[in-house]
# Entry
Amino acid sequence: MQISKEQYENCLAERITMEAYEKLAAGRVAIAGLGGLGSHIAIMLARCGVGKLHLIDFDEVDLSNIHRQAYHLSQIGKKKTEAIAELICEINPYIKLHLDDIRVEKEQVATLFADEDIICEAFDHAEAKTMLLEQFLTNRTVWIEEKKLVTASGMAGFASANTIITRQVLKNVYQCGDGVSDIADDIGLTSARVTICAAHQANMILRLLLGEKTP
# Structure
């Protein structure tokens, strides 16, 4: 069945209101990391009609990803950027996607995220998370002054979902998760808890695009 852009947009606007739809359609969001967090965040934002997604990851889909990430078995071996773009286009073929198949280094941050309103940190490793936050806070040039950063910390194990929350930790910086749990403690990762944290990040991004500033 062929769905026109007008049909798609009208149907979405009926469900989230035209005012919200227009704000989200004008949104520009970068997602750094397309694993258990980023792959689900990207799909959630696409379903809500966010106009442009900048998707960044250097990795390929692996069998070990399937238990908590959005990918399918048929996508093993594909670049994560290409694989998530395939899934998104099946959901929202009218979204604008910008794909970067790269590892984010600190020297790239200022230029890599220059065109986005919101940066979503969805890395797996603490070192990468810290690097992006430090660059966001120290490179306070004009291009980054009004940008928002939504990060994640703590979603491992089988603890209560109610311990995962969203906090505003600094001006323009929001953190989602329990802030404590770590796979280094040998408690593993599950799709359910990781996706709960991803939903917190996606929801905070939507709120920011709609003009809300509190978690």
Notes: Residues 191-209 form the longest helix (19 residues). The mean pLDDT is 94. DSSP finds seven helices and seven strands in the chain.
